[in-house]
Amino acid sequence: GVKPSLSVELSNKGFHRLEVVTTVELGSETPGDVRALLVYTWPRGVYVDPYQLAFLSDLRGWQMLFNTTIDLEEPAHRTSAFLTYVYPSHNGPTPGPLTVTIPIHGRYHKPAFDGKSFTPVHIELPELLLWTKKCTPIQRLEPHTLLDAPCNASNTSICSWIKIQLSHKVCTTFLHLPVGDGPTVTLVCTGTLLVTVICCAVLCHSILKHQIT
Ligand SMILES: *[C@@H]1O[C@H](CO)[C@@H](O)[C@H](O)[C@H]1NC(C)=O
Ligand SMILES: *[C@@H]1O[C@H](CO)[C@@H](O)[C@H](O)[C@H]1NC(C)=O
Ligand SMILES: *[C@@H]1O[C@H](CO)[C@@H](O)[C@H](O)[C@H]1NC(C)=O
Q1: Residue to mutate (ligand 3; options 87, 132, 152, 158; most atoms within 8 A of CB)
Q2: Burial classification of residue 62, based on how many CB atoms lie within 10 Å of its CB (0-12 exposed, 13-18 middle, 19 or more buried)
Q3: Predicted pLDDT at 159
Q4: How many angstroms separate the alpha carbon of residue 112 from the centre of ligand 3?
């Protein structure tokens, strides 16, 4: 049957190199012309750097659209959550899993008054949406929800995407970002954002509960 699954991992590749790795398996019976879209809601505590993405654009096989402009300097309490639309694509001829590795950065956090030096930032799982030209088993998924979103990263047209219900979201991912007291303030004031401790690597593995035959 059509059984997409999705998993997300956080990885810390060293100073300033924090990545959210999403793997999507569409399943062998999913028609080859199906396109996938991942919609991420990012908390205000982190940002994705559009310039860094542009720089990496030759290396990655996916495109990203932001729903807002990103200010790289603002502290967490002066920004808000934002959405990104990610269009993954297959790199090779064989339809294996789609992998998207998104570099993220922690924002400066206002000092807390409870003496804690780290604050948890919750990273949510993305929504998985699928689109196909023809009538396929995916469109017979019951119940299905349609969601309008840009067809591709050029944002020139809007498509009706099918929202895939993932059966369980039992796990959560937290980033632990330093809050601005003591030496951290000094670092932030010199223009450096420090992301030190990352907890929780593997979190979720959700499998679509509907099976089509
Ligand atoms: C796509 O384009 C429309 C119209 O120009 C704009 O209102 C919308 O914010 C854009 N969406 C994204 C995600 O960039
Ligand atoms: C972008 O998405 C976030 C999260 O859903 C929302 O709070 C925010 O208002 C959106 N921004 C714009 C400019 O649409
Ligand atoms: C996006 O879709 C439009 C029309 O659907 C197409 O003309 C355009 O070439 C596509 N852009 C990319 C980058 O695939």
Answers
A1: 152
A2: buried
A3: 93
A4: 46
